[in-house]
Design brief:
The protein has about 200 residues and is of the alpha/beta class. It has one domain: Collagenase (Catalytic Domain) (3-Layer(aba) Sandwich). About 30% of the residues lie in helices and about 15% in strands. It has five helices and six strands. It has a six-stranded mixed sheet with strand order 2-1-3-5-4-6. Helix 2 links the parallel strand 1 and strand 2. One of its GO terms (molecular function) is metallopeptidase activity. Its cofactor is Zn(2+). It is found in: Secreted. It is an enzyme of class 3 (hydrolase). This is Extracellular small neutral protease.
Length: about 200
């Protein structure tokens, strides 16, 4: 009788695919946030096509919670890139699906000698919710023009990538702001001074 009870004690957990007193061989799956996909339209970006492609790749390689992809149709994009004659300026995000972000890639920064891929990646950082930090080193993408024209780094550092992942960690919010701040980046080494009245 004791042998039958012992046999049943061993048989019941086996039938239930579990073991008594031991951790499961198959740990419970952890819920992972879904990746937010943002689409962009670069059809109005002209000569910026290659820098945009590289900038997007740099961001996609660095972050996990958001992915940037070209829109299947231009009118459906969450944000757009366009070539302009002025200074770069961008909608400060984070932008989410259904958003209306705008990246203006200004020729004046190129005329000053700044790297086009760094400009495109920096402005994309604004779309993803990162502010400027002009006092930062060249290794910090959002230092923008601060390190000067010799800086060509177009990749976000670990802290910048972590902040973007944090911005998108909860997925797409149910409600999104209708109004966004626009960041104007004057990529210039010139310091504007005010002349005192005589």
């Amino acid at each position: 009788m004791i042998k039958r009870i012992a046999a049943l004690t061993a048989l019941i957990p086996a039938m239930l695919s579990t073991t008594v007193g031991a951790p499961s061989a198959h740990p419970a799956a952890h819920a992972t946030p879904s990746v937010v996909t943002l689409t962009y339209d670069a059809s109005g970006a002209g000569q910026w096509a290659d820098p945009i492609k590289q900038a997007v790749q740099n961001w996609n390689d660095a972050v996990h919670n958001v992915r940037l992809e070209p829109a299947s149709t231009p009118g459906s994009a969450d944000y757009l890139y366009e070539a302009t004659s002025g200074w770069p300026q961008t909608t400060l995000g984070p932008i989410f699906p259904g958003g209306n972000g705008d990246v203006q890639l200004g020729q004046q920064a190129v005329d000053e000698g700044y790297d086009t891929t760094r400009i495109a990646a920096h402005e994309t950082g604004h779309i993803l919710g990162l502010p400027d930090d002009y006092s930062g080193p060249c290794s910090e993408l959002m230092s923008g023009h601060g390190p000067g024209t010799s800086c060509t780094n177009a990749k976000p550092n670990a802290a910048e990538a972590a902040q973007v992942d944090k911005n998108y960690a909860a997925g797409t919010p149910a409600a999104r702001p209708h109004h966004h701040q626009v960041v104007i980046d004057v990529w210039s080494g010139r310091v504007l001074t005010r002349v005192a009245p005589r």
